[in-house]
Amino acid sequence: MAKAKLMLDYVYDHEQARADTVFLTQPAGGGQVTDYTWAQVMDQSRRMAAHLKSLKLEPGARIALLAKNSAHFIMAELAIWLAGGTTVAIFPTETAETIAYVLDHSGASVLFVGKLDSWDQQKGGIPVGFPCIALPLSPKTSYETWDAIVARTAPLTGRVARPGTDIAMLTYTSGSTGQPKGVMHNFERITRATEGMQANVIKQLGGDRDNRMLSYLPLAHVYERLCVETAALMHGHTHLFFAESLDTFLVDLNRARPTIFLSVPRLWLKFQQGVFAKMPPKKLDRLLSIPILGRIVGRKVLTGLGLDQVGLAASGSAPIPADLIAWYRRLGLKLVEGYGMTEDFAYSHSSTVTQQAPGCVGLPMPGVEVKISEEGEILIKSPGQMVGYYKRPDLDAEVFTKDGFFRTGDRGERTPDGLLKITGRVKELFKTSKGEYVAPAPIENRINAHPLIEACMVSGLGQAAPYALLVLADHIRPKQHEANVRSELEKELTQLLTRVNGELAGYERLQTLVVTKEPWSIENGMLTPTMKIKRNRIEGAVNDKVEAWYGSGKKVIWA
User: Fold this and answer.
1) How many domains does one find in the chain?
2) Are residues 357 and 498 in the same domain?
3) Max CA-CA distance within the chain?
4) Which domain holds residue 485?
């Protein structure tokens, strides 16, 4: 029997068979780009791998990456693997404190520093004298550069083999509920998960083909790592583009004209609100309802977003409102929702255009087993399942059942046709003063579906009824202090409150909607690097105001 291929085997095959094919396209500033063929990618990676080996690091040495997505992020990861190391990718938005923690906890030997937006606030987290290498596009530093090293170093040769049991990457969770945990993924499991993902993509696209993708969600997160990076490394026929900045995002997207596009709910919502800022929702809805014209209008909207060539679009990382998925499908975009976690390398469930239902995340991916515990918790056994938490065998014992299923912490249920529906988080449930437990996520999804809302959080621990804290959409927020605008907004929000409460059980009904002045962001600590809300942080920021909100008796409060 032929030995099953691992990730590097696929890479070596493409290096030989597709040497002159462009693999990566990197914006270089001023509208210029640099293309890298498979041969060029591997030449640079092999040279850096030879340099890393010359440092005489221990087998499996942890080598860290602090960088936004770029062509050299991919090359650095390949170099680390070729040199016998383990990649430790740090979110490029992390604080100095978290950077210091990850470097120390992982026992990292070397750090690659790449493209960053907040270097001045982050560099204090790197110990004095720590070995660092500056990637192209990095902030100005005194570190030796990638280009200088590869220019003087002969490439590592041959097909370096890594056993499937070797740890390929140590992925630190984004820390929405506390200190990040290091999740260990080995070569065997990331390969099997990527093979399963690739088979699913080919099935949904109706066959194998050349693809284009834009990599912009953090590569430090397994969602982008699986669905973009390792999928491209394995497929070989994928041209991977990168984004230069937030300001150039639409230009970068239009350059790529992706055939596969991934995003997270918060960004799907922002794209929609950008459309609504140019065309009122009611007018667009009316145009989309007209036969023939509706298809033309939908196509025009997608072209404006740079998504008109997309054959498959996906949303992951957090729940997305069913109405939002339906809106994109009306435009003609085949948007599906998936479900996965850092601990299973994002390989768990996916819906399809034909196998989907509102509020459901789809069917188990090939090889995935799922069951619901007596307490309603979703239990998963996945080919991409982690080896364990780094240095935390005590946590391993907590999160795995005796028969090897991972306790996800999510509550859920299965529909009669096998679709999985997420109904909330086990730990996010809170009890009202009436003794009833409330799951915030389903209520938040109902509110987030409204075009006025950018984000919301439902809370109310120990109160007679829950409340919802709202962030209004970008195009509305600057005007929310104006008296005439606020009056109209208050009417709409009151109607929203009435409608949502009419769909909820009595104990779930919201007492009030509270509108915040400032948006939640990664920078102000209210969102994780993957744009999930940090409940504890947001609740802590408003804790001293909650009693006054309840005492006001108002349905809409302007905080």
Assistant:
1) 3
2) no
3) 75
4) 430-558
Q: Which helix (H) or strand (E) holds 213?
A: strand 211-215
Q: Which two tokens stand for residue 200?
A: 């699913």
Question: Do 343 and 320 meet the contact criterion of CB atoms below 8 Å apart?
Answer: no
Look at residue 528 and tell me if it is in a domain.
yes
Task: Name the region of 332 (left: φ>0; alpha: ψ -120 to 50; beta: rest).
Answer: left
CATH of the domain at 170: 3.40.50.980
Can you count the helices (H) and strands (E) in the chain? 19, 27
Residue 102, number of CB atoms within 10 A of its CB: 26
Question: Which stretches in the chain have pLDDT values below 50?
Answer: 176
Give the pLDDT confidence score for residue 1 in this predicted structure: 57
Within 386-449, where are the H helices? Answer: 393-399, 440-448
pLDDT at 525: 87
In this structure, are 483 and 524 located in the same domain? yes
| Both tokens assigned to 322 | 């069913």
Whole-angstrom distance, CA of residue 137 vs CA of residue 127: 22
Per residue, the 3-state secondary structure of 233-273, as one string, reads HHHCCEEEEECCCCCCHHHHHHHHCCCEEEECHHHHHHHHH
Cα–Cα distance for residue pair 216/115, rounded to 1 Å = 12
Rounded Cα distance, 203 and 192, in Å? 17
The pLDDT tens digits for 149-168 are 999 999 999 999 999 999 99
Give 86's strand partners.
Answer: 62
The 3-state secondary structure of 326-372, one letter per residue:
HHHHHHCCCEEEEECCHHHCCCCEECCCCCCCCCEEEEECCCCEEEE
Q: Does the CA dihedral 479-481-487-489 come out positive or negative?
A: positive
Q: How many whole angstroms separate alpha carbon 469 and alpha carbon 171?
A: 31
pLDDT digits (tens, 9 = 90+) for 356-388: 887 789 999 999 999 999 889 999 999 999 999
CA distances for 199 relative to 164, 190, 227, 405, angstroms: 20, 14, 12, 24
pTM recorded for the entire structure: 0.85
